[in-house]
Design goal:
39% of the residues lie in helices and 14% in strands. With 376 residues, it is an alpha/beta fold. An 8-stranded mixed β-sheet has the order 1-9-8-5-4-2-3-12, sandwiched between helices. Helix 6 (136-146) links the parallel strand 4 (121-124) and strand 5.
Length: 376
């Protein structure tokens, strides 16, 4: 029996809520279930305003527009991230300044940010890899000193915290993904979290194709019209209905994934003690959400051999990002600031193991034993 890398989970109410959305006669965006999701995020996570989007990419694109970037402006981010993190800002004409990561968490190295700042820098984009928080305190201090926006790519960080604060609510803007690989999902979806009052009104306009349609439906204007740039960033009400069923169970989903994460950690610890693999590191101030479990091996050759061995035994493990600064588009739209001491070498050592809600204890035991046989 094969063990996939991911298997999307359904709580049991998704189809019921989708039927309710249909019965309500509202299938396009911003219906009753969309509003329920907004309320859940605002109350549970604690942002000033939450708006669902049709993807995490869309949330990042909205953030880039809200940052009011001009061609030639610069944005600082790690190279070890998904293409959407950079693409959103490159679309606005910004130049991407990629900086090195920390080898312990795979997050942006906060100590290297200041030296990458120029008079053209407008924003810092920390990416919370695997739902483990970046060092946000020094990042926010730097942003205050240099008057820079902080846009959190918290795509993997729903329910994770840093010093008691939810990821996505610490910077000026936060971005979530509800892609089917995430803890809570709706197939494709996302959300933008606005933590500064000044962005709320314009964010609604950008999300509604550049119109003041939301104000019209609230009765604040007698007609709506085109007032700014924007696009159609709303998700379908069907997606929102599916997502709300997931958000209602977010606590239980997170607890189950953390249980599986801990089973991996304890089961693979003997191999780590022998120095054969490295396990994930969680800083003391962080509470993560069990989004991902990865190990690091000696080098890229060992990674490829282990992945092939797992596949041969019916287990789908995968590597992750190819550093963006080494890609064709990365070299065109950005450049690496400073030394690539860790980004490339650490990315080549990393393997993600299967992680999903319905992954059982026996499955995890089988994966661990297969890895043990590889090293034996």
């Amino acid at each position: 029996m094969k063990i996939p890398f991911n298997k999307p989970y359904m709580t049991g109410k998704e189809l019921e809520y989708i039927s309710q959305a249909h019965a309500n006669g509202h299938l396009s965006g911003d219906g009753p279930f969309t509003k329920k999701c907004h309320e859940w995020l605002e109350k549970r996570i604690g942002c000033k305003k939450a708006l669902l989007t049709h993807s995490g990419t869309a949330a990042l694109e909205m953030a880039a527009i809200l940052a009011d970037l001009k061609p030639g402006d610069e944005v600082i981010m790690p190279s070890y991230t998904f293409v959407s993190t950079a693409n959103a800002f490159a679309l606005r004409g910004a130049k991407i300044a990629f900086i090195d990561i920390r080898p312990d968490t795979m997050n942006i190295d906060e100590t290297l940010i200041e030296q990458a700042i120029t008079d053209k820098t407008k924003a810092i984009v920390p990416v919370h890899y695997a739902g483990v928080a970046c060092e946000m305190e020094p990042i926010m201090e730097i942003s205050l000193e240099y008057d820079l926006l902080v846009i959190e790519d918290a795509a993997q960080g729903l329910i994770s915290t840093s010093r008691g604060r939810f990821l996505g609510t610490i910077g000026h803007i936060g971005c979530y993904s509800f892609h089917e690989t995430k803890n809570c999902h709706c197939g494709e979806g996302g959300a933008i979290l606005l933590n500064d009052e000044k962005f709320k009104a314009r964010a609604e306009i950008i999300r509604e194709k550049g119109t003041n349609r939301s104000r019209f439906f609230r009765g604040q204007v007698d007609k709506y019209t085109w007032v700014d740039i924007g696009s159609s960033y709303l998700p379908s009400e069907l997606n929102a209905a599916f997502l709300y069923a997931q958000l209602e169970k977010a606590k239980g989903i997170t607890e189950k994934r953390l249980k599986n994460w801990n089973l991996y950690y304890e089961g693979l610890k003997p191999l780590a003690i022998k120095g054969l693999i490295e396990l994930p590191f969680i800083p003391n101030q962080c509470k993560h959400n069990g989004h991902m479990f990865f190990i690091k091996v000696k080098d890229i050759n060992e990674r490829n051999n282990l992945l092939a061995y797992l596949k041969k035994n019916g287990i789908l493990g995968v590597f992750h990002y190819v550093p963006l600064h080494s890609s064709e588009a990365g070299m065109k739209f950005g450049s690496f600031s400073g030394e690539d001491k860790w980004t490339t070498i650490e990315s080549e050592r990393l393997i993600r193991l299967p992680m999903y809600y319905e992954l059982g204890k026996k499955d995890i035991g089988r994966i661990i034993k297969t890895i043990e046989r590889f090293y034996a």
